[in-house]
Amino acid sequence: MKLSRLAASLLLAGALLTGCASSATERPLIVVSTNILGDVVSNLVGDDVEVLTLMRPGADPHSFEISASEAARVRSADLVVSNGLGLEEGLQQHLDAAADAGVAAFVAGDVVDVLPYTSTDAGGADDPHFWTDPAQTIAVVDALVPVLEGVDGVDAAAIAARAADYREALEALDADMTTAFAAIPEARRALVTNHHVFGYLAERFGFRVVGAVIPGGTTLAAPSASDLADLVSAIDEAGVRTIFAESSQPDRLMKALAEEADVDVTVTELFTESLTDATGGAPDYLTMMRVNTERIATGLSP
Q1: What span, in angstroms and rounded, lies between the C-alpha atoms of 275 and 38?
Q2: In a domain, 8, yes or no
């Protein structure tokens, strides 16, 4: 009997110690909507914080969905980081539910210099694709860092140090993009894509957005025959020889458009709204932007 009581006491003590250790080592939880922002946040917080990125590699940010267990974690997070500006159409109800539950939130779209869509089909709506201009991403980092430093349980000094390093990398990216695009003759700086996503890049680096196969500001829309006919005319007038398709969208329409334009047009894939997994061509934001820069510069150069 005495041995049984002793064993029970030891088991209870072990359980209490285990519970205390688990509680002491539990990391803060930051939930991030898109994988592009998830990469940015991960670079700032390191391993001291658990980062749950809801959007899978290669997914469409306008329409991806999450599980019930993920939705519950959104509502219990220490901080929710989202893009905003209408990008996360399929996720907004969960972001709203977290806000109603009192979860702290950071919306990147609230701290950038917002541009309207270049497409008249979008009805003057705000363009959410700010990350195509690295200067806008720098603005997001500058605003996000103090918010991250205020999360309970984080090492503010470590975040500040990582932020300084990451900001330096973003500034180097910005300088390299400026140099690469400056080498493209101004007359050839015309972008045609399958979705309006390059408004910020165009504004920053002096490109013209000739058009997009998908009208408006969302991949949930579909082009009409007249949309395609108008775009063919615009391509002919601009003398475009390379058009760009997003990695997250099928390029069948782009290839059909290239054939319809009756000119020697190349369809080049870009990574725009989503990162890839570790084996793909755009596993992180910096790589994605450098790959896109090289492909745009190569495609539009004489």
Answers
A1: 10
A2: no
**Under a CB-based contact definition with an 8 Å cutoff, are residues 226 and 246 in contact?**
no
* Contacts of residue 84, Cβ cutoff 8 Å, sequence gap at least 6: 107, 108, 109, 110, 128
Residues 254 and 219 in one domain: yes
- Report in angstroms the alpha-carbon separations of 72 from 62, 75, 97, 230: 21, 5, 10, 46
Range of the domain at 258: 185-300
Q: What is the DSSP letter of 190?
A: E
* C-alpha span between 36 and 231 (Å, rounded): 29
168 is a domain residue: yes
What is the band of 239 on the pLDDT scale with cuts at 50, 70, 90? confident
**For residues 109 and 119, is the Cβ–Cβ distance under 8 A?**
no
The residue among 116, 112, 114, 167 whose CA lies nearest residue 145 is 167
- Has residue 166 got a pLDDT over 60? yes
The string of pLDDT tens digits covering residues 242-254 is 888 776 555 565 6
B/e letters for 32-55, b = 16+ CB within 10 Å, e = fewer, are bbbbbbbbbbbbbbeeebebebbb
270-287 pLDDT per residue, tens: 998 999 999 999 999 999
CB-based contact 53:35 (threshold 8 Å): yes
pTM of the complete model: 0.84
Contact 73, 95 (CB under 8 A): no
For 37, the 3-state DSSP assignment is helix
CATH number of the domain where residue 169 is located: 3.40.50.1980
Q: Which two tokens stand for residue 50?
A: 């658990």
